[in-house]
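I would like you to help me understand the sequence and structure tokens below and explain how sequence relates to structure.
___
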Amino acid sequence: MPIKINSPSLIKSAGNKPKIIEEYIGLVNSRTSEVSIAKMKSPPGWIESGQKPEFDEFTVVLKGKLYVKTEADEIIVISAGEAVIAKRGEWVQYSTPDKDGAEYISVCMPAFSLETVNRDERNDL
């Protein structure tokens, strides 16, 4: 039987500024371990620590621009209407430095968890 999700759960964000994370499907809101689906709203100037997650992350930008820094110090800019795939085990660092911030949908497989995101210990924000 299909399961209706009436509303998302608000998840505490990482980074130098508060970011709104609304998890619709995942470990917190639906107790789903196979996948997590969340809508994010990052403010201007937001940046989080680098991470080397144990999940694949698929991100679609709805508004603004999301910056994705790679381990090779390359910065990939994902604009509204574009998407990016970060494979498990790849180091990435997300940010929204532009004045409008960004809104985007993130899908993680398996589901996002604090235990498997593997954020950098150093805080180079």
The chain has one helix and nine strands.
